[in-house]
Task: structure prediction
Amino acid sequence: MEKTAAKPGDYVEVHLTKLIYEGILLESPENEKGTVLLKLDSGYNIGFNKKDILKIVLMKKAREKEKGEFEVKKNPEKKNVAMIITGGTIASVLDTKTGGVHPLQKPEDFFRFYPELFEKVNVAKIEIPFMKSSEDMDFKDWQKIAKTTVELLNDNNIQGVIITHGTDTLHYTSSALSFFIKDLNKPVILTYSQRSIDRASSDANLNLQCSALAAISDIAEVSLVGHGTSNDDFCYSMPGTKVRKLHTSRRDAFKVVNDKPFAKIFPDKIERISEWKIRNKNKAKLDAKFEEKVALVKIYPGQNPDILDYYSKKGYKGIVLELTGLGHAPTKKSRNSWTLKLKEIQKKGIVVCATSQCIFGKVDPLVYSNGREILATGVIYLEDMLSETAFVKLGWVLGHEEWKKNKKIVKEKMLENIAGEFNKRLEE
Result:
């Protein structure tokens, strides 16, 4: 192989006898110095034996790290927003040693990669309550985000709040904030990226630009903003309790379920799709009580109901059962009937709610005898509420001691449309 001036992080061409590959040159592992690693534009890594390479051509040098502090310039003619950075792919960059990504270490690094954001707004405040992948979060992290968000919402200098977050459990967090923040007065925008900024196909820039417009709009809702299609054309603003991650890797991974987006957002305009609450002069309040002894259980054919004994012994206070179809589980015609066990654990004080495994539609226990039998045990059927939203809401409701003591009040709260979690106009 001919000598090359390329270094890890540079964009290069790797010339083989008959093929040429383009991508970012990665650092080879210590024990594989005879191997050249390349990160392709598709995001996948590929390895070559040095003996098979004719030459490596430098196409573009890696971005040099700027010395000194990165100064975020503010324009008095632009509106101010605040950002809460929590981690995830949107706050990560390529690690030239592994080909994976690692979190950005400080806000200045974050903003070097997203200069387009500052063309639309001033980022007046930056908060980093923690930096972690969303799959590692729990309710305590939701509480931290909610507390920080409320403080920023009540700052008269801030027009709206943008929260960057990993995608895996983003819809859990958006649901949690929808219940945890009362008397919402300004936009709360959660956004993400499926692909890190070093990739040509990154969705981060468009998502942030659209989030900036949403944050200074009059959409006083907790909403998730992300790609509307797999192209870089527009984003949707989606209700925090009616959105779900429906694809593992597409840029438009999040979709509204059983409802409509609030708006279609382009880099330069917002088009209304449905109604939303408008910004107001309320003082946002924090109501982040949460009972962590809540479970989400999926029903499958032949499942033994004795699994519920585990939750009972462990002191769980509530269970959301993700039932089949309109809201069914094995009953008297099955050797693993759930009817008696559901009666038993509810007598012990465990609140049981029901959602559907189907993505669209709602549960209706009155259509078939199976559903009516389960309903008669006391299970609370949650209409078209998403399972993840139901899990979060049940934990929030049971976190209030004054509600938890009365099963009737718990049922009323679970069936009350508190944060847009039900769609009463759901079309069949």
